[in-house]
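INPUT
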Amino acid sequence: MMHNLTIAEQIKGLKSRDFSSLELTEHYLSRIDDSELNAFISVTSEQALTQAKMADSILAKGNASGLTGIPYAHKDIFCTKGVKTSAGSKMLDSFISPYDATLSEKLNSQNMVMLGKTNMDEFAMGSSNENSYYGSVKNPWDTKKVPGGSSGGSAAAVASRISPFATGTDTGGSIRQPASLCGITGLKPTYGRISRYGMIAYASSLDQAGPMTRTAEDSAIILNAMAGFDERDSTSANKSVPDYTKNLSKSLKGLKIGLPKEYFSEGLDKGVERVIIQAIKDYEAMGAEIIEVSLPNSMNAIPAYYIVAPCECSSNLSRFDGVRYGYRCDDPKDLNDLYLRSRSEGFGDEVKRRIMIGAYALSAGYYDAYYLKAQKVRQLISEDFKKAFKEVDVIMGPVSPTPAFELGSIKDSVSMYLADIYTLSVNLAGLPGMSIPAGFSDNLPIGLQLIGNHWSEELLLNTAHQFQLKTDWHNASPVD
Amino acid sequence: MTWETVIGLEIHSQLKTKSKIFSGASTAFGATANTQACAVDLGFPGVLPVLNQEAVKMALRFGLSINATINKNSIFARKNYFYPDLPKGYQISQFEIPIVGNGVIDISLEDGENKIVGITRAHLEEDAGKSIHDMYDEFTAIDLNRAGTPLLEIVSDPDMSNAKEAVAYAKKIHALVQYIDICDGNMQEGSFRCDANVSVRKHGDKLGTRAELKNINSFKFLEKAINLEVERQIDILEDGGSVVQETRLYDSIKNETRSMRSKEEANDYRYFPDPDLLPVAISEELLLEIKKSLPELPTEKKLRFVEKLGLSSYDAEILTSQKEVADYFEIIINKGADAKLSANWVMGELSAALNKNQVEINDSPISANELFSLISRITDSTISGKIAKDVFKLMWEGNGSVDEIIEKQGLKQMTDTNALESIIDDVISNNLDQVQQFRDGNLKLLGFFVGQVMKATQGKANPKQVNQILNEKLT
Amino acid sequence: MSLDNNKVKEIAYLARLSIENSELEQSTKELNNILSLMDQLGEIDTGDAEPMAHPLEMSQRLRDDQVTEDDLSEEFQEIAPKTGNNHFLVPTVIE
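OUTPUT
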């Protein structure tokens, strides 16, 4: 079945004309149609078919680039010209973006086929995809469970094989955690690796886009297309893009793997722990050396993140005011009414909570105690990692303290926030991180987290790929 | 009951870059509404700012001109508030670490005294758009062309103690930013905006509560507004009340200030460093490059005019206050004309003609070279100073070059001693009474004789020679 | 640091959000819950650590002063809630 092929295999298949891009696209569109996971907000069938036909003509001429004709799902946080871009929110339900995000342009320039825009937690705020204006997304492994968030739609789409890969964004774990809960491979690169221009901002100093695929090899192929300097983004790193597929096959003999002792304390589900420990043993068998490290400020990541992110987002979301685009309330009486009602009616509860937390933390008299203090903690967390990476090459641990939980089971924000414990510090330090399928507990997928030093995506992908050569978790599928 | 006034000025100077501070849209004035507002300026979701190099250089030019501290790593901060002409719901400005720190500037007061005014800081920020309230009855119309235009906000120390000092300071800054070519100074178009912070106190007391005056677009109004405000505050305080810290708009038609229903009611701007921008690093090389590119500044130029050219401080101040005037004047001097004579002509006849006809010196129908020629003809005695004024008028109206006019009108000064002597002899012999009175002691009559000679020569006699010969013959 | 209902209303207004009186109690509780999480920050000794605004040590890149954007006002105004005479319109603002 075409949908069980990896991207690497699909590229080969298109090249050798085993099938056409149009066939591939129609196949996926039909699967999307049948899917009840609510993974998509918009399905751009007409546009996709047009793109597929165009790709086929390029493939026929024989001068196609690697990814020509490959379909993908695009998280609805990326602006796509002429196509609805909602960020999962009523505020942008009517927003047809007049411009393309850099990432959208990049993928278009490869003549890829966009199947549609995926569902997500509103404005990327959430860990379960239950905060979307367009309804929750279901986990393909158990439709009563959450897929994780905020890139829940993307994760569910890839896991249920209704798209070969999907784009995601990660501010506090939003690629890695849904990847873990849905049993796929998710990569958040180093901050600055991929352009943020056109990616609707949540927390500017933490947001980063990344590929969500089934395999590490696919991830490397996609990262090649996504990465690169963008002059329209001041926080984009002017660093050359290596070929991320080149060193996937290097042996891991002598690789030093750090296990933070803080990651293996109480609160970690026994099933998750079992999977992670086994995965580490597998790495040992491949010749890696396991070293205990300490990241003493790990727990502090939660209050630090839940101040920095709301502060930045409270400001980033001020532009949504009903004046130039997006939702405007009916018959505003005066300017204040316009603002108050458009914003209160347009935003969901979690978004409003974080905006208010941010506004409070930045307000007069509280800046030092909250924002400034949080940024100092951020420095400490960053230094923890710096120290650790002097002794080890890669740090490993869990992604989520538990497997996927029941839809509607976590009602209060704080409990939801606490589950981000393993992923937040990576964003605070701007480091690259991956989640790869490592096993199951109660028939639910568990992801292993790999964390690297700045700009070590090649090493991470190599480390992940080798695991996927030795194990089969990434091939497990919830569907036929 | 003597009240002291304390005034500080905040000047927003629009930098004359081609594109906006954080986007590549044009800053040209007068375009159709919203045609120069790109995605970044409109604050679409996902857009990001990138800093215009020229805006940075212009800020540095200003900083170096006032001998200010330059902050080698300045930070952009977000000033958060809601207003429809502020698309992102925040203005990108600078807060804790501005690009330019403390500096000084000296101003000349009316009585000729100098005063040193401190400048607290100058920072870069983006301008907001325009709100038009009278286009529709039930709506306010928003034009975002101006949104994103680079501004340099120049904040003075509260060093001024009356409206005239404030105006002198504002004018000095106004001249300076044009001198160093960072702003076109057009107050009508809003390129140069002055806000005044005014408070009063009794001598010896601590600073009083200040009010901020906005919406002042001329130096005349600045003086009026400040004076009104001082009166208003004194009246309140003398009645036993207290001054409210607020923003007041100056209404030039009613000549009053009124409280602005604050657009930022909760003035909590929640400043924090903008995470979309990184610290602006200024290298020594860049500073050196900019220092080299600065023109001679007004203060240096004035000193040179006084010391090297022997001009009075007053004259030098006037001639150097505007770069175009100084440049014009220097063309004439550099060709060898007498400094004092040239100064008189530029500040006198030329200035009067320019003002009368509402013409800028750069558009003067008489170029610096042509004025030099005119002055030369006075110096070489071809014409008298008085006749030169007539020639000037004719040149202004486009009647040809200096020499052409002198020739055509036959205005050459009469310098032939013999001819003059003969005319003087005639005048003397026709006015023997006055001759006698003169010889008896009425020396004022010399003027009468000079007048008669001038009449006889249609004003063309060389006055110096006439005087000399008359004196010889009459005594 | 605990917020009362009035403070919550103030903060909401600062962010131009409105909370129905019927929901105020609940909102205040939720926010206080989150705040107690944030307040843990107070117990951390950050020593002489500098605040970290960006994860990468980079300076701001400068772009050339060139006009690079065309007039797309028609497209932009097509998606605006209310326009008139090339302007974006909002209910009258009194200054």
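end of record. The mean pLDDT of chain C is 92.
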